[in-house]
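Methods — Computational structure assignment.
A single polypeptide chain was analysed. Its primary sequence is given first, followed by the predicted tertiary structure written as structure tokens.
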Amino acid sequence: MGHPCLSWLFFQRAEIPEIFFQRAEIPEISGYSPSRHRCCIDLMILKKALSFDISKQRTLGLLDSEFNHSNKMFQKVAMEAALDNNAIAQEQYSRPSRTCIDHAVNRRLTIDHHQSKRISLALATRMSDLKGCYDRIIHNAAVLALLRIGVPKAKIHSMFETIQRRVHRIRTGFGDSTETYGGDDIMDWHFTPQGVLQGNASGPTIWSILSSVILGFAQLYLNNCSSWSGFRMWMIAISSNQDTTF
């Protein structure tokens, strides 16, 4: 019962044959994308009360539970690899042992420290909400960032191929749509679907690893750019909401 691929699905039977465990591991070991994993229901929820503008909704992907359990195991492997390789930026708070409270306290203390020292350099704080960041992750960039820290290629291929070939239905107030989009029809598309979907258990970890690469470039550029000599800059934190202090 302590098998790493065990999910709540297997508790539906009193006796669990070993073949179920082996079946669950096939996609991760081989890179195979099972058709049963490619079913998805698009559910839109309100981001703001009584705001029904369709462009302002949050679209969640209701994924196959077995597939999302595999994603959960994927994020565990990816985060362990990232920490072992010191690949998570110090400014990244989407990591074990850190919380949004740590983020808020660190931001406040950084500003207070600057003011108490009466440092002559200018200080400004910029806050930005990276809208739909999970939906905008480019697969090639994410794959390279994951391969860089040693995540197995088969695991990566299985997850991203499943996402790209996903068959979508839309949940409405009248039930789920009978028409679908996606699937193998993407072969006729100009670009294959990108992003990792809101609701993907591995989404936060993939974003943490990819954004750490971006932060590394930003710090390298700022540390070697003389035009910033009149300012003091810290990258305080980055998650789906980003704070940058100048």
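Note: The first strand starts at residue 39 and ends at 46.
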